[in-house]
Amino acid sequence: MIYVGSIYTIKDQNEITIACDFTHGDYRDTLWFKTDLENENKLSLNNCDSFFVILVLYALVNKVDITFKDPISQRLFMGFEDYILPTLLYTNKNFIPIKISHNGLSKELYSEANSIGTAMSLGVDSFFTVSDKLNSIDTIDVLTLFNAGAFGEKGGTGARKLFHEMIKEVEKVAADLNLPLITVDSNLSELLDFKFIYSHTFRNLACVLLFQNIFKSYYYSAAYHLKDLKITNQSTAGSFDLVYTAGLSSNNLIFKSSGLFHNRLEKTKVIALNEKTFSHLNVCLITTDNKNISEERINCSKCKKCVRTMVTLDLLGKINLYRDVFDVEYYQQKRANHFGDILYMNYHMKDLYAKEIMEYMQLKGYKKPFLSYYYLIRRACLAIIRKIKR
Ligand SMILES: [Zn+2]
Predict the structure, then answer these.
(1) Centre of ligand 1 from the C-alpha of residue 367, in Å
(2) Fewer CB within 10 Å of terminal CB in the chain, N or C?
């Protein structure tokens, strides 16, 4: 049995740590979340919801029952019982049913909670959610950034370093959008031995649950279009967005899935109408640690994600608007090569986004650069040669 103690806080000059000790036999450890001290009044410390989410997963991974000392929001607890645990047991053959005990469920509502949040990672999904909700009744008014696995699923010093570098970039966007930014660091990735692709919804939304004092709803960007959702026992977390967002919602904090009815190309079309993206869009796979990164621009303009996005912006007639973030001259020089890459990604790698691009071209009657077929064949031959050499 895992015993989870009460949550407590530690403050220093700039930050507040919200922590909780737990024991499992002789093993003792602490799960913590850390945010700026100025966010203190946004925290909902009367429940242990964030700890509940992560430590129930921890208990499932370790195949052991768990008990909580502090109250858990009733709706969240029921969401776990009704949706999340059955889904996790269905999708992961290593999990077995566990017993979750508690000292009481909380029905508390947070009357001050009026904000609507979403994550800002500078990519297409984040900007789509912000752009799509502009001028709607659900306009995003708070941005978030969490160190919960996106910078390294096992956490540690490397992930923390990238997280702090990313904060600097996201702060610029938040200032430009005139929105507050809430950041949370945590050691949850160091504790939780559960792959990020299967657990990112829990990791990220656990951080949001700390702030029930301000959030009434929070948009979580969908990984897939509804028509591409495949529910099997090997599906990753993105396939269960609708189930997980419903199951993780708390008494008055509702999680919603964003972008479920737009494919990547349609999302790119929406963000290209928002001029704030022209100088901030960052889709690049290459981190700032990598020597290949351009010193002038935040995207390398060479990796798979950059190529896919640049080709999409080209087809939409928007590529020139993104000169600050992509090397458009380099793109124009290599245009046929890039279309060859998309052809290869579509035919050989069955890449979903490459397929969307090809379908759009067909629909609109766009002609591919003639030489793109040469680059397709060249790339396929190089792949075969590499395979033979191995
Ligand atoms: Zn790149």
Answers:
(1) 25
(2) C
77: CA distance to ligand 1 center in Å? 41
The whole-number average pLDDT for the span 197-218 is 96
C-alpha of residue 317 to centroid of ligand 1, in Å: 20
In the reported structure, the alpha carbon of residue 287 is separated from the centroid of ligand 1 by a whole-number distance in angstroms of: 9
E-state strands within 2-131: 2-11, 15-24, 27-36, 66-68, 72-73, 100-102, 105-106, 115-119
For residue 322, how far is its CA from the centre of ligand 1 (angstroms)?
Answer: 14
Distance CA 202, CA 184 (A): 14
List, for residues 27-82, the tens digit of each pLDDT value. 999 999 999 999 999 999 999 999 999 999 999 999 999 999 999 999 999 999 99
Q: What is the pTM of this model?
A: 0.91
DSSP string over 63-93: T--EEESS-EEHHHHHHIIIIIHHHHHHH-T
Whole-number Å distance between alpha carbons of 275 and 292:
27
Phi, psi of 73, deg, nearest 5: -60, 135
**Distance of CA 291 from the midpoint of ligand 1 (Å):** 12
Distance, in Å, from the CA atom of 38 to the CA atom of 170, rounded to the nearest integer, reads 18
Which segment of 116-130, 192-206, 293-307 scores lowest on mean pLDDT? 293-307
Task: List the shell of residues around ion ligand 1, using CB closer than 5 Å.
Answer: 284, 286, 300, 303, 306
pLDDT at 238 over 70: yes
CA of 326 to the centre of ligand 1 (A): 9
**Cα four-point dihedral sign 288, 293, 297, 298:** negative
